[in-house]
Design a protein that fits this description.
Length: 135
């Protein structure tokens, strides 16, 4: 069983393209060492992130992310156990969304872990991944 944590947060100040790039690069390095996969969405004001891996690794990383002063109002959407990863090949994909896209994305996130069959979240989020620039 894998563990999946989804949260949303609000940037304290807009991050430049360079700052976002370095955040994602650093995240990829750390996550690959700790076998954490997932995706990070950013619209210039808000973040939404899906973190997947072993429970202890994910919670340990999330504690560091929560303490990060670049964002606030870090709100967990769901914590769930899943039979497999939704993003097995992505150390941490980063996608830049328009504000309207981000608002739509948030509507697609689950309220409860049971609401989504495995992989269906990925299917629902696929359009946001496909139609946004990669970081
Ligand atoms: C929105 C957001 C998402 C982040 N995602 C990750 C991540 O997936 N992996 C990671 O190693 N760091 C991520 N970070 C950076 C961590 O919060 C933290 O800066 C980094 O792990 C270094 O931690 P340390 O200062 O305790 O060494 C993220 C930061 C923010 C603001």
């Amino acid at each position: 069983m894998f563990y999946q944590l989804i949260y949303v947060s609000r940037a304290v100040a807009p991050l430049s393209a360079e700052a976002m790039q370095s955040l994602v690069t650093q995240a990829r390095n750390f996550n690959s060492i700790h076998h954490i996969t997932g995706v990070l969405f950013y619209d210039g004001e808000h973040f939404a992130q899906i973190l997947e891996g072993a429970e202890a690794e994910v919670e340990n990383l999330f504690a560091r992310i929560q303490a990060d002063t670049r964002h606030r109002q870090v709100t967990v959407v769901t914590r769930s156990r899943r039979p497999r990863r939704e993003y097995p090949h992505w150390g941490m994909a980063g996608h830049l969304l328009a504000s309207a896209q981000f608002a739509e994305l948030v509507k697609c996130l689950p309220d409860e872990p049971e609401q989504f069959a495995p992989r269906s979240l990925r299917v629902r989020l696929e359009p946001f991944v496909a139609h946004s620039p990669r970081l």
